[in-house]
Amino acid sequence: MKRPKGILVLGLFVGLCVVVLTPSVIRVENLKTRSRGLETELRKLQEENLKLENELRLLRQDPVYLEKVARRKFNKAKENEIVYKVVREGETVLPRDKNP
């Protein structure tokens, strides 16, 4: 009669362990998933940071690049340069002094 009682105690012990440890195991898996997501986001941010640092370096050290960016951003032309604006059908065109 000792065997069935021992099996019952062992079964209860295993059941208790499962009940107690399951939330911890689930939490660990959730934390691992979150960690992988944060690592991916960190890599993307590091890549973006590197691109921005390179652009900043170019803006500070390369006058040709600075001119290119300024001309594109502010729609500026060099003296005696002709600028052509391509307008799609149906678009309205504002006079040059009203464009942002």
Describe this structure in words.
The chain has helices at residues 2-61, 63-74. By secondary structure, it is mainly alpha-helical. Helix 1 (2-61) packs across helix 2 (63-74). It is elongated. The termini are far apart.
Brief rundown of the structure:
With 100 residues, the chain is mainly α. It has helices at 2-61, 63-74.
Label this structure with key terms.
0% strand; 2 helices; elongated; single chain; mainly alpha
Query: Given the C-alpha coordinates, what overall shape results?
Result: elongated
On the 0 to 100 scale, the average pLDDT is: 85
Number of contiguous helices: 2
Return the string of H and E elements: HH
Structural class label: mainly alpha
Radius of gyration: 33 Å
Query: What are the segments in which pLDDT stays under 50 over at least 5 consecutive residues?
Result: none
Number of strands: 0
**Could you tell me how far the N terminus lies from the C terminus, measured between alpha carbons in angstroms?**
92 Å
Helix content: over 70%
Structural topology:
Layout (H helix, E strand, L loop, with lengths): L1 H60 L1 H12 L26
